[in-house]
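S1.2 Input.
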Amino acid sequence: MVDSKQQWKAWLYLAPAIILLLIFTVWPIINTVRMAFINGFDFSYIAENTKDEKIISIGIRNFADVIRNPFFTNALKNTLILCVLTVPLSTFLALLIAVCLNSIKPLQKLLQTIFFLPYVTNSIAIGMVFAAMFNIVGNVVGNDIHGPLINNPGIINYVLEFLGFDRINWMNNGSSYWANIWVMVIYIVWNALPFKILILLGGLQSVNKQYYDAAKVDSTPKWRVFTKITVPLLSPMLAYVIITGFIGGFKEYSSIVGVFGDILMGPPHDPGRLNTVVGMIYDYIEKRNFGIASAGALILFVIILIVTFINLWVSKKKVHY
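S1.3 Output.
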């Protein structure tokens, strides 16, 4: 405990961090809420000598405009699909990999480092590599993104052909919506694995070995050890990675930019097809519709809050501490 007479020193040491948090975290949140309820908000209305007078009013019109906008419906659908597909899949794969790594003693530290590398690599750079693997092959001539195609199917299609399957148009002109979605699912799952593996592996290494020794004495099958010992004891960590996975999934943005480029968040033949809610908010900011962008951010916040509360409610019934 800090002596009450010396608390001013603690406040003094904390002052720089508190000031920065107030300026760059607290104030932007307050300002976002304020702008969301100002209809027709634009920074030009406070500029000096503005010729075009704007009618500014207080209300919820911005929220209505966002909800009625078909682009928001499309963006929310894309976001939900990516969350529902990627979070369970990445959590299940991370659990299997963590269990395998925990059972391997030689080269364990090296393998942990290799699996963790994607987490510290720039997501845009990784997205460009994935784009090449799935074959974005359009030549850019000037500002024309629909240039002639290079006859190169990409490494993924080479693998499919080697296995006896037909090539798939994953990302180029004429590709299907679900082909684009599966490209993003594979990328997001691969990118999300390192953090989840690290959390689950740390949880496994802290489990009391007596449980496994008792199961070995009873000749318990490995699948039953996994379902009745490993999963229940890891349930707090599983709940954590699932909740953070859904939060990160609803904020998905940079991965789509990395893979497809900043073409209004979509493939070249259909701009906006894969736009997410965060991408739509950025689009409104670029158009200087700050009120609508703020309303969209608050709607996204409420959605994330509801999903988080649902996860916490389920966790209370399923998690064993």
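S1.4 Remarks. The first helix runs from residue 7 to 36.
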